[in-house]
Write a structure and sequence with these properties.
The structure is a single chain. The chain is mainly β. It has one domain.
Length: 148
């Protein structure tokens, strides 16, 4: 994920870990919320950042739980001048280079899902790509052996 960032860090700890990484803090006023299913809670995006992942530039959103602890990170490619889906193909290739073969691949309608488990960093990586050329990467903490 992001160097120096660990699950359950506070917003201040995440900002300190990301110092110099092109991140910026954003307040909760008018910000998005993201409901989760298990466990049921509402996450709020408090920090945004940008970085290179392979050959694609991504925008990251850092989601915090109601206790103010880092719960998940979402990355999406920034707009590119190339053909639709090119950035998504670059991101998928970068993830495969970093994590190897995915642990799970499913196709649901126009969406393709790839999941990796990084046991060393206790992180689940979920890449979703649509036929339309849109894609998203979600990182979250592995919470158990059956966590997919």
């Amino acid at each position: 994920m992001w160097d120096g960032v660990r699950w359950n860090m506070s917003e201040a700890q995440v900002l300190a870990a990301l110092a110099g990484e092109g991140t910026r803090a954003e307040g909760w006023a008018g910000r998005r919320v993201k409901p989760t299913r298990r466990p049921a809670m509402t996450l709020k995006d408090r920090i945004a950042g940008e970085r290179w992942l392979g050959d694609a530039r991504v925008r990251a959103t850092f989601w915090f739980n109601p206790e103010g602890r880092l719960w998940s990170v979402t990355e999406e490619p920034l707009a590119t001048d190339g053909p639709a889906g090119e950035a998504c193909a670059q991101l998928e290739a970068a993830l495969a280079m970093r994590y190897g073969a995915s642990d799970l691949v499913t196709d649901k309608g126009e969406l393709r899902h790839l999941i990796w488990r990084d046991e060393a960093r206790r992180t689940r990586i979920h890449f979703r790509a649509a036929d339309s050329g849109d894609c998203t990467i979600d990182y979250r903490e592995l919470r158990g052996p059956l966590d997919r």
